[in-house]
Amino acid sequence: MAQSFAALIDQLLADPPAIHAMDGSQDPELGVWSTDRDCYMFVAEQVTTGSATLETGSGLSTVLLAAAGARHTCVTPAQEEADRILAYCARRGIDTASLTFELGCSDEVLPRLSSVTAFDLVLIDGNHGFPTPMLDWYYAGSLLRRGGVLVIDDIPLPAVAHLVAFIDGDPRWEKCQRTPKWAAFRRLDEGTLRQDWFEQGFYTAPPPRDLASLLARSIGKIRRTLRSAH
Ligand SMILES: C[S@@+](CC[C@H](N)C(=O)[O-])C[C@H]1O[C@@H](n2cnc3c(N)ncnc32)[C@H](O)[C@@H]1O
């Protein structure tokens, strides 16, 4: 299967779908903001026919998951992206019967997605500005089954880097694979990712910026220590 996925991914990369506007002009050139081949390989290897998958953002990954036979849900705000993907797949005989587009921004769409589906794989690669990757992680990650895989692209970007640093310390996740561009984690529990701060002892505040903040933080810490000692 790895052999055929490799061939499929090479085909898609050699003849990529033209989906995204590549510049901000009135008449932009179309292309695809794709990720690395090894990320696509990793994603494809997690999927068997009928796997339930979810991604934020659309692109080559959407075509790949449809071609791999996943029951795939793609969240994108752009109807034209969905139309271009469907047309690309139709031209190449890729079955899209199990591909569903949920149109809208992920922060609005994901909270409405039914928790009846426990996803096997979630790919986060939509809006990369703070706090959207965190919202995508929270809502889409909450729908991952125990043992399901989370893939996050563009990890050097600021908000994504903060998210990955958090997950790295979070015992609910196991590190799977990582390159400088993307990271993958396996979920070790299930259900909502909601927690209160006292359940996140692994998570530390950024260093204080001035003496007053340092003092306030130190006093808060002493108070909490004293309170827990009683
Ligand atoms: C980097 S591209 C995704 C590339 C794709 N994963 C691939 O492998 O080709 C980013 C995508 O995020 C979508 N996007 C932008 N803002 C979004 C939002 N708020 N919610 C969901 N998707 C969004 C864009 O329309 C675009 O399809």
Task: Write up this protein.
The chain is an alpha/beta fold. The chain has a single domain (2-194), classed as Rossmann fold, CATH 3.40.50.150. It is 38% helix and 21% strand. It is built from eight helices and nine strands. The strands form two sheets. Strands 5-4-3-6-7-9-8 form a seven-stranded mixed β-sheet, sandwiched between helices. A two-stranded antiparallel sheet has the order 1-2. The model has no long low-confidence stretch (mean pLDDT 95). Bound molecules: S-adenosylmethionine. S-adenosylmethionine (SAM) is lined by residues 20, 32-35, 56-61, 75-78, 81, 105-106, 125-127, 132.
Q: What's the tally of helices?
A: 8
H and E string: HEEHEHEHEHEHEHEEH
CATH superfamily: Vaccinia Virus protein VP39
| Major sheet summary line | 7 strands, mixed
Q: Please state the second-level CATH architecture.
A: 3-Layer(aba) Sandwich
- Strand arrangement within the widest β-sheet reads 5-4-3-6-7-9-8
Mean pLDDT: 95
Form type? elongated
Looking at the structure, the CATH topology is: Rossmann fold
Number of domains: 1
Query: In percent, how much strand structure appears in the residues?
Result: 15-25%
Distance between the termini: 60 Å
CA-based gyration radius: 20 Å
DSSP strand tally: 9
Bound molecules: S-adenosylmethionine
Percent helix range: 25-40%
> What is the class in the CATH system?
Alpha Beta
List the uncertain runs: none
Query: Structural class of the helix and strand makeup?
Result: alpha/beta
